[in-house]
């Protein structure tokens, strides 16, 4: 099923990615160091795939399933991730700059050492996600579900946490504005 959907996507998209990388992904459910720039992979089931060090810049990954996929050190700059599933995925060291991740599922995802700037995480679900050492700038977490997530060594002062669920969310060594600090206390977050 995955192969037939992907073949259809290939023929209906103008692509700048490497065809050999798509073939490898189809045949082996893995493609490390691969080029998927500007590819339309929306709606595909890529759960459990090994995709470390891959380039998804400007790709359409809306509603794609990356459950437990290994995407370590991948580039998602300017990618569309709306409604995608990264549940328990490894995104450590990845670039998530200028992405649209509206209503995206990052439950239990490893976002350690990621770059997240100028991005839209509005209404995303990030329960128990690990944002340790993530470089976060100008990111919108409005209405996001961040319960029990771990923010460690971050600077959130120019990002929005408006109406976010922060119950048992840990903020350790994280720079916050006074307004954010007050909101975290109201939401029963944990500031260390």
Describe the structure.
48% of the residues are buried. 15% of the residues lie in helices and 7% in strands. It is α/β, with parallel strands linked by helices and 192 residues long. It has helices at residues 2-11, 19-28, 178-186, and strands at 115-117, 135-137, 150-152, 170-172, 190-191. A 3-stranded parallel sheet has the order 3-4-5, with helices on one face.
Q: How many alpha or pi helices?
A: 3
Largest beta-sheet details: 3 strands, parallel
Low-confidence stretches: 4-15
Please give the number of β-strands. Answer: 5
The radius of gyration is 17 Å
Order of helices and strands: HHEEEEHE
Helices and strands: which structural class? alpha/beta
Helical amount among residues, as a percent range?
Answer: 10-25%
Relative strand content = 5-15%
Overall spatial form? elongated
Can you lay out the helices and strands and say which pair or pack?
Elements: H1 2-11, H2 19-28, E1 115-117, E2 135-137, E3 150-152, E4 170-172, H3 178-186, E5 190-191
Provide a brief overview of the structure.
The chain is of the alpha/beta class and 192 residues long. It has three helices and five strands. Helix 3 (178-186) links the parallel strand 4 (170-172) and strand 5 (190-191).
Provide tags for this entry.
192 residues; alpha/beta; 3-stranded parallel β-sheet; 3 helices; 5 strands; 7% strand
């Amino acid at each position: 099923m995955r192969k037939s959907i992907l073949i259809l996507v290939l023929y209906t998209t103008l692509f700048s990615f490497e065809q050999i990388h798509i073939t490898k992904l189809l045949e082996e459910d893995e493609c490390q160091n691969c080029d998927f720039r500007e590819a339309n992979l929306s709606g595909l089931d890529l759960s459990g795939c090994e995709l470390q060090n891959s380039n998804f810049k400007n790709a359409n990954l809306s509603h794609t399933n990356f459950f437990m996929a290994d995407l370590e050190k991948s580039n998602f700059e300017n990618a569309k991730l709306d409604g995608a599933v990264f549940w328990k995925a490894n995104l450590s060291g990845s670039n998530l700059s200028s992405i649209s991740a509206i209503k995206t599922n990052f439950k239990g995802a490893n976002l350690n050492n990621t770059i997240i700037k100028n991005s839209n995480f509005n209404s995303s679900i990030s329960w128990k996600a690990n944002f340790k050492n993530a470089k976060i700038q100008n990111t919108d977490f409005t209405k996001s579900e961040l319960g029990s997530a771990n923010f460690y060594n971050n600077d959130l002062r120019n990002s929005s946490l408006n109406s976010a669920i922060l119950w048992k969310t840990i903020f350790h060594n994280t720079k916050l504005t006074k307004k954010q600090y007050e909101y975290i206390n109201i939401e029963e977050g944990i500031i260390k």
